[in-house]
Amino acid sequence: MEKIKVTIDGEVQEVEKGLSVLDIASQAGIEIPTLCHHPDLERYAACRVCLVEVKNARNPMPACVTQVMDGMAIETRTEEIDNIRRVVLELLLSEHYGDCVAPCKMACPAGIDIQGQIALIADGRYEESLIRIKESNPLPLVCGRVCPRFCEQKCRRNLLEGPVGINMLKRFVADYDMNSDGPYTPDLKPSTGKKVAVVGGGPAGLSAAYYLVQEGHQVDIYEAHPKLGGMLRYGIPEYRLPKATLDKEIEGITKLCGKIEINTRLGKDYTIDSLKKDGYDAVFVAIGAQSSQSMRVDGEDAPGVLSGIDFLRDVVIGNETGLGKKVAVVGGGNTAMDAARTALRMGAEKVIVAYRRSRAEMPANAEEVEQAEEEGVELAFLAAPAGIKVADGRVSGMECIKMELGEPDASGRRRPVPIKGSEYTMELDTIIAAIGQSVDNTSLPQDGAIELNRGYPVVDSETMLTSIEGVFSGGDCTTGPATAIEAIGAGKRAAAYIDMYLSGKPVIAIDKPYSCSKGELYEVRDSEFADVPTQARVDQETLAADIRKRDFAEIELGLTEEQALAETKRCLQCGCQDIYECKLREYATEYKVDDSRYGARQYLMPRVKDAQNFINRDYNKCITCGMCVRMCQEVRGVGAVSFINRGSATVVGTAFGATLEEAGCKFCAACVDACPTGALLDDKNRWRELPAHEVATICPYCGVGCQLILETKNNKIIRSVPDDNGPANLGQACVKGRFGLTFVNSDERLTTPLIKKNGKFAEATWDEALDLVAKKFAEYDGSQFVAISSAKATNEENYLMQKFARGVMGTNSVDHCARL
Amino acid sequence: MGKTSDFKDIKEKAIKSYESWRQSEPVRIIVGAGTCGRAAGADAVIEALKDELERRQIKAAVTRVGCIGLCYLEPLVDVVKQGKPRVCYGNVTPDKVSSIIDGYIVGDDPQSDMLLGSIGDEAIDGVPKLFDMPVLKPQVRIATRNCGFVDPEDINQYIARGGYTGLDKALKMTQEEVIEEVSKSGLRGRGGAGAPTGWKWNLCRQSSGDKKYIICNADEGDPGAFMDRSVLESDPHTVLEGMLIGAYAMGATDGYIYCRAEYPQAIKRLNQAMVQMEEYGLLGENILGSGLNFHLKIKEGAGAFVCGEETALMMSIEGNRGMPRPRPPFPAQSGLWGYPTNINNVETWANVSAIMEKGGQWYASYGTEKSKGTKTFALAGKVNCTGLIEVPMGISLHEIVYDIGGGIPDGKKFKAVQTGGPSGGFIPANLDHLTADYESLASAGSIMGSGAMVVMDEDTCAVDMARYFLTFTQSESCGKCVPCRVGTGEMLGILEKLCADESKPEDIDRLMQLCTTVSRGSLCALGGTAPNPVLTSLRYFKDEYDAHVNEHRCPSLMCKELISFYIDPAKCKACMICARNCPSEAIKGGKKLIHVIDQDKCIRCGVCLEKCPAKFSAVIKLSGDKMDVPDEPIPVGEA
Q1: Any CB–CB contact under 8 A between B80 and chain A?
Q2: I need a surface site. Which of A199, A244, A704, B552 has the fewest CB within 10 A?
Q3: Check: CATH 3.50.50.60 for A319-433?
Q4: What residues does each domain of chain B span?
């Protein structure tokens, strides 16, 4: 082959004549993006992201079709080329209507793969579902009970009958695992010899510890309280999160860790400096925000005035709380609800929650408020404390002033404004202030060694690095009081950056992959789920109010297996299955696109209705690259799909909107495998599960000998795809090879032989069965014997069958059904 | 008629047949009945003429011919009396035919208010010469030399006027000599791109292949362009002769005419012409005994603009969706079904026959240094004399608009001329000294294109015109490459926002960036040139874009969302005419009460402005401004 010299990105290369720029770039290890090129298809040059600059050419040239010539000089990444690629990608994304990542996962601060979690439950793979959750959240027993569920707020099912019970499902698998014989424990990587001190044993610290130990680092946890758990233990009442359950979850983490130092307080018993001196390579400060804020009214120091979190903590520890009989709880958050309901359980006769705004503005979960009311907690809205009355050395009443709502403030909630002259007095003996928390900044060195802002350590919002090298901080102590799941997310993220630091890499924010979204719930078009059958959300069993308020027994009892399985059917599987393979997403990330730049005209395609369940078509994700059209025409010779319309309205589809079946589709899925985006997908899968193994095999269905790759995980076939290197099929398969092999996962498969006794099949041993067959076969000779084997047997089995028939039985009457 | 191998015999026979027919008809009436003439009422005129002649028992032949280009004067009727020059009448209507018959056919007085002039060297006293008219005088007719003069359905007339002489000459030359002659003429592709024809032919000739194709691209699709249609309808043989010459020079045995199905008359005439050619041995095997075999088919296109792009055109002939493919390979290397193929536009082929008849040198004597010969243009828009013109290259735009086009109607100001259709650009009035040739138009950001030329006056909004052209390109994109498919739609979206007063300042930057990406990144010339109307309007009329975006004003008072109508209370005479005609009942008022337009109800159709009697002129159209008028009607005279 004749060789020529070309220069690509400044490097002179000796290459074969006749190759394209794309070919030689890939030989040189230079990746040129392309969205319409496929080695099996005629070169097409339509996507225009493969444009490169060729010296002396008038316009940028498509790398896929431009043949290299001697002396050619090519630049693959000039400013103009990058600009064109970016604009082209932005134009494509302006028409791309889909969710790369399901909105639930996007909303979860810990980034749990909720779609995967639910799909695995639906498949009966509870343990795997739990593992999938624990890849992002080490505390599913806790979160399954107390999570504020940002995920459910964003669930697209809100547009139908309400969100999927994501959290109940999480609890279901977490409880399943807890009650199983061997709860899941993650594998740890070999020891790195590095040591990390986690300061604070709350959700942030525990999460960081959990992920850091898995990377092979030694983690020691320092905790000021007698037990780990932080606010999970001392702030959340028993009836919502039983301590026994919490202990199990924490125990699962601490057993992987090194030292657990309890009752040791930062700033008193040790300092960050001393930790470093003790040989810790990195420190994660996650001390929470456990100091209560004052109400700033006179008389606050009087006996009978309690702080919400102190009260809750005292109840947990068993300390004397000082609670009376008539209690007012000031505040509208979850702590206020917890304090009010705990007060009831501690014997208070009357509990009123005084909140300065109205019900709509309450930060507490609506369900919490509802349950509190059911238990008899009274709510006083638009009531703010103005003073505290003291009589006989104890609180005797709270002066309140009525409020009205004014203009929205910075938080978007309407600001309460006092109404002059509306003061009144509530008679009571206890006031619990639950109006907010702050960091106990007595722990942190105030000498400027660590940079603080109003008591909170200053950190890089992404990497969580503080002003001190090797010291990271996250959770409530950097963000202010927030939720458990946010602290967990922070801990997980901190672990990733601490690991980055410990492996000697510079601590730089990891680029987030581009994710397309259909937008907020109100932005989703009306017709989106019009054809989805409705199914009511399941309710978990809950103790009745009059029973539960008597003690601290857990109120919510979790889902039954039947309920859980039913609830999984409600998941709309929003996240795109193509997420790991999508070229559009990959390039959008690489070229840092802004998908809002274009979109002056919007085209939305109707949902495709196909009766078959092999191929899922969503033309709102189609980039009209023609890969499917050409694959179907050029390679398969079928032509089931084609381009339709002209101009900007050009789309891919079947003639006259026929179903694929009507259009003559053979369901080989060559189009699915060629599609660079998620417009064409396997219809059966509920999410894209990455295989653990890939096994090459020969398709058993017929004699062609197509080589397939079986993607497997946990001894299950996830899917089968044709092998590009298969000598007989060169990357192609038919519907049987592509979709017909997952039957092996079926529950209905016989795994033990059955023998008919008295007209009924009964299980038998292999020996029994084989003896019986041999005995019966012996009654016949070749001319009386015909053998037919199943296409669902392997090739080896089929071979043996015919060998047996010919060699042993002496017949050539052998057949095999090549049916699905 | 038997086949003959000697062209001299054919020619003699044709002339004889034509002459004897001429001699046999004392009066011949020739009606311009191209699609343009018919649209203007030529069929009814012919009908009326025939009825009237029959009623009066006058022997006269009525012949349909094509178009001489004077669209604004259609229908045209010419009268030839034995021994007299041909006399031409314009804007003839059925009710006026008897006055022509009375005056000049029965009588001998050609004078009439419809008289345009005489045609031919001889003159009639008191009758001007048609070709001395300002609209015709600067024109040089080569591609259209026979248009309006031969009966397109009679091959003899074509031959009698010198037709197929060029082919005869060519067949006596070598292939190289023919190509040399074409090269010498300096002829460049008239489809728009302007590649030198001789060079292109040579590439195809040198390509090796078992078979070669030539194609006539008659997929004329620019809005406002009808040069090709006119030539095919008026003189199909000139194109067919050109193709035969090309087939010989390049060694092609098969040809296609790719003509849009919306041109039924052209297709009919081509088919008739081909039948006549076969009868004369001018098509098929061993043409004129030269050994040249050439078979020709007509492929009717379904009307996709992009099929005028050569690779898409070939896709379409092959039976696929018309989508361009990347070049190279060029058609000359690998074209129709993979064979070497040459594609030329109708007008190019029409010029070839003239060039071979009269010589390359002769052709090259017209035009400029780099753009030789003549070019046809379809002159349209806000100009007095609309029609098809053929002018020598290098004539100035000013001459075209003012001398040939007769200037702008209603005394309005000349604003710009748009050349090259949706692929071309705007050339502002202050650049009207630019000449019509490939280089000069390109230097102004436009293109020659196939010859559409749209004149705009001061009432035309540059933004709206750009929007209009983008509406066309975005719906005619083949949909293959991303910049064109999505980019033109996005550009249109921005332009629509601009015209609808919904734009933001950053839209202009986005528009510019899209122009660059679409023009630099598209697969074929459709996308590559689609931004031209936007780019040139931004270049020459940026102030109008700024006015739309920043001042919410349309300086041409054209964009509906940016204008408002008011009734001047000082001028309104309360006549109720506007109110009665208002389609949206937006005008309040009554007897002796001045009228007030309810701006919320007004749909800005402008009917009130149109209907308000000129002597009052009370309706005022404003943009970016408000007029202080009473909210409710008040008695006349109190304002």
Answers
A1: no
A2: A244
A3: yes
A4: 20-130, 164-364, 374-457, 462-550, 560-623
Which two three-digit tokens encode residue B304?
Answer: 């996709």
The answer to whether B442 contacts chain A (CB < 8 Å) is no
Tell me if chain A has a CB within 8 Å of the CB of B312: no
Confidence band, pLDDT 50/70/90 cuts, at residue A819: low
CB–CB contact B321 A84 (8 Å): no
Which residues of A fall within a CB distance of 8 Å from B482? 46-49, 88, 91-92, 623-624
Domain B462-550: CATH class, spelled out: mainly alpha
A611-620, A715-724, B375-384, B389-398: range with lowest mean pLDDT? A611-620
* A232 has a chain B CB within 8 A of its CB: no
ipTM over 0.90: yes
Give the DSSP letter of residue A333: S
The answer to whether the Cβ–Cβ distance between A91 and B321 falls below 8 Å is no
Report whether pLDDT(B170) > 70. Answer: yes
Residues of B in contact with A623 (CB under 8 A): 482
Tell whether domain B374-457 is in CATH 3.10.20.600.
Answer: yes
The pLDDT of residue B5 is 57
SS3 content of chain B, % helix, strand, coil (to 5): 40, 20, 40
The correct CATH number of B164-364 out of 3.90.870.40, 3.40.50.11540, 3.10.150.10, 3.90.660.10 is 3.40.50.11540
Taking CB atoms within 8 Å and a gap of at least 24, the contacts of B42-48 are: B42/B74, B42/B75, B44/B93, B44/B94, B45/B75, B45/B77, B45/B92, B45/B93, B45/B94, B45/B97, B47/B94, B48/B94, B48/B95, B48/B97
In B549-601, the DSSP E strands lie at: 563-567, 587-590, 593-597
A755 interface with B at CB cutoff 8 Å: no
Per-residue pLDDT of A55-105, as tens digits, reads 999 999 999 999 999 999 999 999 999 999 999 999 999 999 999 999 999
Q: Any idea how long chain A is?
A: 820
Closest residue to A48, CB basis, from B304, B482, B513? B482
Cβ–Cβ gap B513/A87 under 8 Å: yes
pLDDT beyond 80 at A394: yes
pLDDT exceeds cutoff 50 at B3: no
The CATH architecture one would assign to domain A3-77 is Roll (3.10)
**Beta-carbon contacts of residue B363 (< 8 Å; ≥ 6 apart):** B142, B185, B186, B187, B351, B354, B355, B372, B373
Is B326 touching A (CB cutoff 8 A)? yes
In chain B, what residues touch A92 (CB-CB under 8 Å)?
482, 486
Given CATH 3.30.70.20, say whether it is the number of domain A583-682: yes
- Cβ(B336)–Cβ(B208) under 8 Å? no
Q: Which residues of B touch A95 (CB under 8 A)?
A: 486
Contact A623 B482 (CB under 8 A): yes
CATH class for the domain made up of B560-623: alpha beta
CA of A231, closest CA in chain B: separation in Å? 49
CA nearest neighbour of B462 among B391, B352, B398, B554: B554
Per CB-CB distance under 8 Å, the chain A contacts of B488 are 647-648
Return the HEC string of A539-590: CCCECCHHHHCCCCCCCECCCCHHHHHHHHCCCCCCCCCCCCCCHHHHHHHH
Are the beta carbons of A45 and B528 separated by less than 8 Å? no
Phi/psi of residue A20, nearest 5 degrees:
-90, 165
Domain segments of chain A: what residues? Answer: 3-77, 319-433, 583-682, 693-745, 754-816
Q: Which CATH superfamily is domain A693-745 in?
A: ADC-like domains (2.20.25.90)
Do A95 and B486 make contact, defined as CB atoms within 8 angstroms? yes
- pLDDT per position as a tens digit, B440-457: 999 999 999 889 999 999
CA A540/CA A537 separation, integer angstroms: 10
